[in-house]
């Protein structure tokens, strides 16, 4: 089981580096942007393939409706009085699952859904 935890921790860190690369690619000249974006896509595909060989996957939650049964903790959950109408604005750290069991719990940043925000 220690191998699974180690691989999961490495996968989560690699995912964060890939997200940083994707954000950085948005701020480089067009000549380099396409190359960096292609490298990030390739690396993400390799990560998914390597994890799939071990029955594992890395999960991001951007844009999903927040539910208490998701394998994540919300860093700003105290900012909201109820859990209805919340969406995950940004995945800060991904969840990593192995055979449908969370090994690493993700961290997310919440926001009110557009429908609930307009009612406030």
Task: List the SSEs and their pairings.
Elements: H1 2-25, H2 30-53, E1 56-59, E2 72-74, E3 86-93, E4 95-98, E5 101-104, E6 106-112, H3 114-119
Parallel strand pairs: 2-6
Antiparallel strand pairs: 1-4, 3-6, 4-5
Helix pairs in contact: 1-2
Quick take:
Helices cover 45% and strands 25% of the residues. With 120 residues, it is α+β, with helices and mostly antiparallel strands.
Mass-distribution shape: flat
- Gap between N and C termini: 47 Å
Number of helices: 3
| Integer-rounded radius of gyration | 16 Å
Task: Give the overall pLDDT as a whole number.
Answer: 91
| Unreliable residue runs | none
Strand content: 25-35%
* Number of DSSP strand runs: 6
Strand order of the largest sheet: 1-4-5
Secondary structure class reads alpha+beta
Helix coverage percent: 40-55%
Largest sheet report: 3 strands, antiparallel
Describe this structure in words.
The protein is flat and about 45 Å long. With 120 residues, the chain is of the alpha+beta class. It has 3 helices and 6 strands. The model has no long low-confidence stretch (mean pLDDT 91). The strands form 2 sheets. Strands 1-4-5 form a 3-stranded antiparallel β-sheet. The chain has a 3-stranded mixed β-sheet with strand order 2-6-3. The longest helix is centred in the N-terminal third of the chain and has 24 residues. Strand 4 and strand 5 form a beta hairpin.
